[in-house]
Amino acid sequence: MTNKILCMAALALMIGLQACNQTKNAAETAKEGATAVADATKNTANNVADAAANATEAIAPDQPTTTVSWDKEEHDFGNIDEGDKVSTKFTFTNTGSEPLIISSAKGSCGCTVPQWPKEPVAPGESGTIDVEFNSKNKPGRQTKTVTIQANTDPNPIRLKIKAEVAKDPNKEDATNAQPVKVQPATQGK
User: Fold this and answer.
1) Which of 91, 164, 92 is nearest to 123 (CA)?
2) Do residues 99 and 68 touch, judged by C-beta distance below 8 A?
3) What are the b/e assignments for 133-156, b being 16+ CB within 10 Å?
4) How far apart, in whole angstroms, are the C-alpha atoms of residue 159 and residue 115?
5) SS3 state of residue 132
6) Contact 108, 145 (CB under 8 A)
7) Ranges of each domain in the chain
8) pLDDT digits (tens, 9 = 90+) for 129-161
9) Closest among 158, 168, 144 to 76, alpha carbons compared
10) Which of 18, 21, 27, 110 has the fewest CB atoms found within 10 Å of its own CB?
11) What's the rounded Cα separation, in Å, for the pair 103 and 116?
12) How many CA atoms lie within 13 A of 104 on its CB side?
């Protein structure tokens, strides 16, 4: 009987040690997983920082810079109706001694589309940035920017457009829409 008790106690001790060991392994695995997540987050942050640095280098390559003067850096379309497409021109002059090279011009959203000269603009010459704004689904006061990357000092250059967009009266307002009544499903017998 004593041998049975000792065997059972030994078995219980072995099971207890095994369970304790598994808990310790689970804790170590969780810790290793947390470390792996932290490392991956750190690597992602480093990759983002590297990409930003590379993007800056791509935007401002080692080339001579020039200066630019603008006829305006902001345009207010005033009051327009929702759905209107309006456009304006920003005229610039290369006031520096190097050719002006515009590498990109991007609107702050898809509703603002700029067009720019793709060829270098010689010193003393002028050009335009044409900007179209589509007010579809944009009721209310709108302010958008066009960011221009070029071999200028300063770089980038930001142009701004504004408009007060009157809501389309024929468009149903989602906040005033009546709830849809749903009939419960009936089961056939």
Assistant:
1) 92
2) no
3) bbbeebbeebebbbebbbbbeeeb
4) 13
5) strand
6) yes
7) 1-59, 68-166
8) 999 999 999 999 999 999 999 999 899 999 999
9) 144
10) 110
11) 9
12) 11
pLDDT above 60 for 57 = no
Averaged confidence pLDDT in the chain? 78
Residue 153 has which token pair? 């000092």
Residue 84 has pLDDT above 70, yes or no: yes
Contact partners, residue 15, CB within 8 Å, separation at least 6: none
Q: Which of 13-17, 45-49, 109-113 is predicted most confidently?
A: 109-113
pLDDT beyond 60 at 175 = no
Task: Report the Cα 6 to chain-centroid distance in Å.
Answer: 68
Question: Which of residues 16 and 153 earns the better pLDDT score?
Answer: 153
Q: Looking at domain 68-166, which CATH architecture does it have?
A: Sandwich (2.60)
Whole-prediction pTM = 0.59
Nearest of 181, 169, 145, 150 to residue 73 by alpha carbon: 145
Q: Which is more confidently placed, 45 or 156?
A: 156
Task: Encode 69-104 in three state secondary structure.
Answer: EECCCEEEEEEEECCCEEEEEEEEEECCCCCECEEE
